[in-house]
Amino acid sequence: MINFPIFALENTDVILKELNEAIKNKQQYVKIKEERILNFKKIKSDNLTKEQEYNYNKTLYLEYQKLNSDSAIQYVKKNLKIAEELQNNELLNLAKLQLVTLYSSSGKYRESEAILKSINKKQLEPSLLPNYYVSYREFFEHYAANSYSIEYRKQIGRYRDSLLTILNPNTLDYQINRIQQDIFNRKFDKPKKQLLALLVKTKEENPQYAMITYLLGKIAEATKDLESRKKYYALSATSDIKNANKDNASLQELALVFYEIGDVDMAYKLTQSAIEDALYCNVQFRTLLMSEVYSIINTVYQEREAQRKSELQIYLLCISLLSLFLLVAIIYVYKQMKKVSRIRTELYETSQKLAELNKDITETNSQLQESNLQLSESNLVKEEYIAHFFNLCSTYINKLENYRIILNKKATAKQFDEIYKILKSTTLVDNELEELYKNFDIIFLNLYPTFVKDFNALLIPEEQIVLKQNELLNTELRIFALIRLGITDSVKIAAFLRYSLSTIYNYRTRARNKAAVSRNDFEEMVMKIGIMALKA
Hints:
The structure is a single chain. The chain is mainly alpha-helical and 536 residues long. Among the domains are: 1-25 and 181-245, no CATH class; 389-527, no CATH class. Helices cover 77% and strands 0% of the residues. It is elongated, with a radius of gyration of 35 Å. 27% of the residues are buried.
């Protein structure tokens, strides 16, 4: 718990000392939180219902949300699967909205936007509307960090306005968002009074404590109050560190304050801590923001290093002239060189981390390009199969023409017995039907190679279809292959497969009765075989 005495809130030096201690011991705070999470995991029962397991995962998501976004994503994905199994839209949409913010904060903007667009606001449960507006607002906040635009800032304001229309005015969330709106509109006096009142009655371990002091720092920044700006950002940063919140905006803001007043060492220390936290949590938008600050401070560091080297040369010259102070000067130079070496090592390590991050981004872009190439190849393959069908039709036309010529010749030669014998035989038709079905099976399975496996997955285990040796599809599978292609009319299916209409009805009814899923949804799920589902 953070525990600042009342008098300490007026003493910036005490607050900064507390912040330095927090940074020094921040791994201990993380360890405490991780132990709490581990203890929670140990008490999990093996007999949880799906709803209980959903709530269990939700608790872990909340614990990891500001600590490790990758772990948080893992538990939200589990809840997506559970919600789909329960067919509970409210739980499904809640998990989706949680995933939106996690994806956008970790730089997966396309995935985040795709999920947002998949959610129908009009069909959204009223209880989830605040989450919906918050997700959109945070999406634009994160995206603006990557690609700043005035329009993105306007969108942030619009979604905050929408959020305020549905929040309970008596809640802390409403008050915080109303204050943010006033600050956004450059109104400072009223929100400052409200924040100071909230600060007095908000416990230090409450995550909103860091937000309240951060907003006070923002007001101080806007009103050019340097001392208050330093104080409130330090309070906010200390709160975040002790709560093991790795998504820490206040450290970055405080680093800029010390940079502006010329304390480069403190600015560097804060920047280092902020970058470490952002990388630990995988908050990419925060890493991007810190990279900009780091580049500025790093430039000053290089200049400072050059200046220090110059000073060392002067000191060495003085040492050669003033032998009396030789020992003192040598000790001083040693300390200075050791400090420079440490700084150089830390700068190198940070540069390596940033290089690794850039490498990850490059690899992600390469994977995206590869996926686009695979999609293009898939379209080309489908075009080839369509051409194959045209060739097949042309072949059948040629065979019919040859058949007509043979009959015509025999008719001319008055070989009526031969004509009757040919017409009476079904061998030709049977052979052509067999060839047609074989071609259909090959082409269909090339388009949907996992069709048999996916179709069996929709049936109860003891009723799953086992094909004979060298058999690609049987009659039942062909019926549902045609349904998968969009031919749902039993009359058309019967005509194609040369079965009676009642036989087709019986096949479809038996398949629904064998379904492991809802009978009413069975054929609809068959229609979705081969479609890439949303990855939770």
